[in-house]
Amino acid sequence: MISFERKIKFTTNLKETLPLYTNILRGKQKCTYQLSKEIYVKEPFDSSTPLEKLWEFHKILMIKFHSIQDKTINNEIQEDQNTNTNKKQQTLLDLKCEIGDRILRNCILCENRCEKDRKTKKGKCKVGISPRISSIFLHHGEEPELVPSLTIFFSGYISQNSLNGQIMDPIELANTIQKYFKRCGKRGMRNMNWVGGDPIPNLPFILHVLHDIKENIPCVWNSNMYHSEEASQLLDGVVDLYLSDLKYGSDKCGKMLSKRRNYCSVIHRNLLQAQKSGADILIRHLVLPTHINCCTKECARWVAQNLGISTRYNLMFQYRPCYKASQIEDINRKLTLEERKKALKVTQESGLINFVEW
């Protein structure tokens, strides 16, 4: 393992690096999705309410959400919200669930925007109306801040076998997650980690699961971040920590290697929105052979200049050619020692002060 001598901040100053996540773990702050349950809708809505109207409600309520989120003491929130005695009144999270369900009829959750009616057929993601969960387990191989992490792994999307796994309804999964948490405690289970494939095709389902969770468990969104602006709006007020891939430093590389159009503009837009939402961000960059200058260097530079030099950033050297990668000359081999050294050098030169090799 290549290394260089310097202190790693995240091991000693987690509060500064991931402040929201840390406050939730210490019981000083509510999870964002729990807070969304305390923002009430003034005008009732149902399945007949036009989607445009629902988005209008959402915009207004998110302004209120962020004004409350900025308060440091949640007792103030309780006092303000408990004046409403109607426990059946609809909330911001109810509204997000309704909008998510509507979007499935003409799906635009990911930036492919296939517009398929996923209530009757699968989208380009190969995911239908009933998500399949391939595994739920306590993961000890994630970043130190996250483990042990209860990982909920969906089939489909990037995963090659979309039929793998079991179908669970939201209440069943919510109960399963809470049983883990009660059995393990905060030290034995620090968060719930939504991953795939990619979790974005299953966002409406996940919103319903979060609706049924009563515990204050941090929500980690483990994603390639190639989702739509509409999905970003639904995630705002739900996610506590974005565990984000940042693979490529140019649209050309994103198109050539992952068949993603406008890769950089989409991912950058969503990362900036994630930061604006008040959530914490942890970036992963997988170093690819022959892509040090175009991708590794550019990714580190963009993060340092746009998200800040203190952003938690993992430089990953685990790449090995799998599936069709062996057919692409650029990436059909493992990294050389010189490439690993250069990747470390250009990342350090970007100005990032909170990155580690992993």
Automatic annotation (TrEMBL):
Keyword Signal applies: no
InterPro entries: Aldolase_TIM, MJ0674-like, rSAM_sf
Entry keywords, A to Z: Pyruvate
Transmembrane segments: none
Entries under PANTHER family matching the protein: FORMATE LYASE ACTIVATING ENZYME, PUTATIVE (AFU_ORTHOLOGUE AFUA_2G15630)-RELATED
Protein name per the record: Pyruvate formate-lyase activating enzyme
